[in-house]
Amino acid sequence: MAYEFLANRMYRMPTHFGPTLGPRHNPDGGRYDWSDHEFDAISAYFLSERPALEALLPPGFEIYGEPVVKITFAYLRNLPWLAGRGYNTLGVNVPARYKGKVDEVVGSLCLVLWENMADPIMTGREELGVAKIYCDLPPPRVVAGRMNCEASWYGFRFLDVDLDGLRDADLAKDRLDPGPDTQGNLLHYKYMPRTGEWGTADVAHAALSPSLTAGEVVGAKIGTGSIRFQRPAWEDMPTQFRIVNTLADLPVVKSLGTSTITVRGGNFDLYNQRALS
C-alpha cells in the first residue's frame, strides 16, 4: 500500500521517507530556537546604471530608487537546523519594486545566491524560491587590517572583494547600506521547469521574505574596498559562466564603500516566506 502525505507537514524530494527536515521543520515537526546562531555579513556596494540592472529583472519588477548593486559574503555559524554546523553564502542584490495583480512591495531583489553546502541550496530553492547555486566560499582572510573575501568554482576564482580602512561604525549615524531603503524585505523570483516540456515553467512567480526579526548586533564596521571579477570561459564554469560574466559587465559608476556586521540570534528560518501574485 502506497504511503500518504501527512497534513500540515513539509515535504520535498525524496518524499518516500516521511516529512522533510530543514530550517523550518525539526524532527518533531516544530520550529528551531535560533537564539544562539551567529553570522558575519561582509558587503561591498557600487552605483550602476539603471538600464543595465533593468535588463536583469523578471516580470513584474522595476528598479526602486538609485541603481545600487550590493554584493554580500555571509559566514553563518551554529545553525540549529544543522546541529551547530554552518555554511557560507555570496549574494548579489538590487533594490526593486514588485507590482503584481494583487501585491505591491519594495525589497532587495536577490539576483543570485551562491552557497557552499547542498542542504541549504535544496531547501532554499524548493521551499523559498531563492535563486541558489553552488560555489566554494572559504573563510575571509584578514591581514594588517585588510580583509579579503573570495569565491571560486572547482578551482576557478571568479570573485574577490577587498575591504580597506575599516573603522567601527556608529549605528546611530552611519549607514551600513548606502542603497535605497528597502524596508528589510527580500524579493525573489521562483522558477521551476516543467518536466518533459522543456522551455515551459511548472512554477514561475515572485516571492517575499518579509523583514526578519533582528538579532543582537555584536559589531559593525565601514570602510572602502574593491570588487574584482575574473571572467570565466565556458570551460572554466560550464553552468555559470553567463552569470559571472553578466555581473562582471555591469557598469560601475561609483564605488559606494564596504561594511561588515556581526549578528547573534534573531529569527532567520524564513517561515513567513510567501508567494506574491
Description of the structure:
The structure is a single chain. The chain has helices at residues 50-54, 118-128, 241-248, and strands at residues 38-47, 61-63, 68-77, 87-99, 104-115, 132-134, 141-143, 146-153, 156-168, 186-193, 201-209, 216-229, 254-264, 274-275. With 277 residues, the protein is mainly beta. It has a domain at 34-49 and 66-94 and 110-182 and 211-267: Acetoacetate decarboxylase-like, CATH 2.40.400.10. Strands 1, 2, 3, 4, 5, 6, 7, 8, 9, 10, 11, 12, 13 and 14 form a 14-stranded mixed β-sheet that branches. The mean pLDDT is 97.
User: Describe the biggest sheet?
Assistant: 14 strands, mixed
Q: How many helices?
A: 3
Large-scale geometry: globular
- Which class of secondary structure composition applies to the elements? mainly beta
Mean pLDDT: 97
What is the CATH C-level name of the domain at 34-49 and 66-94 and 110-182 and 211-267? Mainly Beta
The residue fraction in helices comes out at under 10%
- What CATH calls the topology of the domain at 34-49 and 66-94 and 110-182 and 211-267 is Acetoacetate decarboxylase-like
> Element order, helices and strands?
EHEEEEHEEEEEEEHEE
The CATH homologous superfamily of the domain at 34-49 and 66-94 and 110-182 and 211-267 is called Acetoacetate decarboxylase-like
The total strand number stands at 14
CATH architecture of the domain at 34-49 and 66-94 and 110-182 and 211-267: Beta Barrel
Question: Strand fraction band?
Answer: 35-45%
Residue windows where pLDDT falls under 50 for at least 5 positions: none
The termini sit apart by 38 Å
Please compute the radius of gyration using only Cα atoms: 19 Å
